[in-house]
Every structure is written in C-alpha cells, then in structure tokens.
Specification:
There is one protein chain. The longest helix is centred in the middle third of the chain and has 22 residues, at about 45-70. The chain is built from five helices and no strands. It has about 100 residues and is an all-alpha fold. The relative contact order is 0.16. The chain starts with a helix and ends in a 7-residue tail after the last helix. The protein has one domain (about 5-90).
Length: about 100
C-alpha cells in the first residue's frame, strides 16, 4: 500500500520517454497533475501531501507486516522498506506555496 504518487511519478517518467499525448493527459489530470508538475519543476511536495503519504504508507505497512504476513523476516523487510520510503518522502523539498 504505497502512496499512489510514486506510481504516478514512474508513469510520468515512462510517458515522457514514450508518448507525449499520454504525458499531457497525466499532467492535465486535476487530482495528480499539479503534484507531478510541482515535483518535475523541483518545487517538491506540500506538507499535506507529505503527511497523507506517510500516514497511508505507515498504516498500510503496519497492516501488511503485523496482520497479513506470518514469516518473521518478511515482516522486517516490509517495516524497513516502509521506513526507507518514509525517509525518502521526508527528504523531498517542501513546497510551501499551497
């Protein structure tokens, strides 16, 4: 349960390399377009976006690690991955314009 913005950024990268038409479609999306545009311009993420991404990430990680998985080392791998992605989100530049 990773935040969807990560997947939209990957999609943006792929569309930028392959199809200008679909890239424009993604950037003109009223929900994720502004966030992707800000990220591509180097403005970073808003505080609200960071907070919601981290909240969703950590809650999904906790549910996955403690309720869905029985193998101990997989639990640790999920937790460490969640912490690593949290650190990456926190290291992103904070956009205070919005």
């Amino acid at each position: 349960m990773m935040p969807g913005l990560v997947f939209f950024l990957i999609a943006t990268f792929c569309f930028a390399k392959g199809s200008r038409k679909f890239l424009k479609l993604l950037l003109n999306n009223k929900y994720v377009g502004p966030m992707i545009s800000d990220y591509r311009k180097g403005k970073g993420m808003t505080v609200a976006t960071k907070a919601s991404a981290i909240l969703i990430l950590l809650s999904g990680t906790a549910v996955s690690a403690f309720f869905m998985v029985k193998i101990e080392w997989v639990k640790w791998a999920i937790c460490l991955t969640g912490l690593a992605v949290t650190a990456i989100i926190l290291k992103q530049k904070t956009n205070r314009d919005r």
